[in-house]
Amino acid sequence: MRPQKTRWVKCLPGERCFRPKCKKPGELEGVVLTIDEFEAIRLADLEEMAHAPAAKLMKVSRSTFTRILARAHKKVADGLVNIKAIRIEGGCCTVAGEQMKGREK
Fold first, then answer.
1. Which residues contact 54 (CB under 8 A, 6 or more apart)?
2. pLDDT interval class at 22 (50, 70, 90)
3. pLDDT at 9 over 70
4. Residue 53 belongs to a domain
5. What residue numbers bound the domain in which 77 lies?
6. Rounded distance between C-alpha atoms, residue 59 and residue 99, angstroms
């Protein structure tokens, strides 16, 4: 298996966990959305970007972006339909703003 290429994201999410109120924390199952999956949803669904330009921003191929987005949609749907907590963490990402800060010096 090839090593995973670093994906670029604009910023880290402010809130890292979303929980349904209808279940007690001890009763909850959860799904983990990686930061690159979160970024793919932000670009495609919130910003309404086409896959090719969104993939370019994340520095991955269009087909890789489409796979990331499909995984993200499946995880979010699982969390909503099956009443699970959704945590955002992990993934092979670099925050674009942090890279630029280092170059200003």
1. 40, 43, 44, 47, 65
2. confident
3. no
4. yes
5. 7-100
6. 14
